[in-house]
Amino acid sequence: MKPIGYWLNRTDQALTGAMDALLAEFGLTRLRWQVLNVVDDDPQATDATVLAVLAANARAADLTAAVTAVLADGWAARPAPGHLALTEIGRTRLAEVAVRVEAFRARSAAGISPEEYRTAVTVLERMTRNLETGAGR
Questions:
Q1: Of 37, 80, 84, 120, which residue is 20 to 30 A from 130 by alpha carbon distance?
Q2: Is the separation of the CB atoms in 29 and 23 below 8 Å?
Q3: CA angle at residue 17 from 92 to 101, to 5 degrees?
Q4: How many folded domains does the chain comprise?
Q5: Angstrom distance (rounded) from CA 83 to CA 87
Q6: pTM for this structure?
Q7: Residue 87 lies in a domain
Q8: In this structure, are residues 104 and 19 in contact, taking their beta carbons and an 8 Å threshold?
C-alpha cells in the first residue's frame, strides 16, 4: 500500500487536472474558480481575504495572478480599492459553472458513500491539525 502522502499528491493533481479541463471552456482554472467562490461567499471580499482563505491552496503570487485574471476577464470588479465583487455577468457565468462542478463532484465521489467521504475528510483534517499543532513531537 502506498503511503497517504502519495495519494494526497495524486488526488490533488487529479482534481486540479480534471477541474482545469472542465473549466477551460469558461476561461477558468481551478484556482481562478476558487478565487471567484471566495468573492461570491463574502460581500466584503478583499485581496487580503482571498489570500487568507486560499493560503493553503496556492502561493500568494499565484493567487494574486488569479485575482488579476478574473478582473481582466470581467468575472469580478473592484467596487472600492482593494475590494472585489462579482460582476453581474460573472455571477451569471459562475452559476453556469456551478452546474458543471456539481456533476464533476458526483463523478469524483462515485462509489464513495457519504459516510466514507465524511470519514476521509475527518481523518485528513485531524492529521493536518496534528501536524500543524506539533502533536507527536
A1: 37
A2: yes
A3: 30
A4: 1
A5: 13
A6: 0.88
A7: yes
A8: yes
Residue 13 is part of which domain span? 4-98
Percent pLDDT > 70 in the chain is 98
Over the stretch 60-80, which tens digit does the pLDDT of each residue have?
A: 999 999 999 999 999 999 999
pLDDT score at 23: 97
Distances in whole angstroms, Cα of residue 38 to Cα of each of 18, 25, 72, 94, 115: 21, 21, 17, 12, 27
40 in any annotated domain: yes
Domain holding 15: CATH number? 1.10.10.10
Q: What pairs with residue 83 in β-bridges? A: 46
- Three cell numbers, residue 59: 502561493
pLDDT of the residue at 137 = 55
**Dist. CA 23–CA 101, nearest whole Å:** 9
Q: What DSSP designation does 46 have?
A: B
Mean pLDDT computed over 126-132: 91
**Whether the predicted pLDDT of 46 surpasses 60:** yes
**Residue 82 placed within a domain:** yes
Give 46's strand partners.
83
39 domain-assigned: yes
pLDDT band at 134 (very low <50, low <70, confident <90, very high): confident
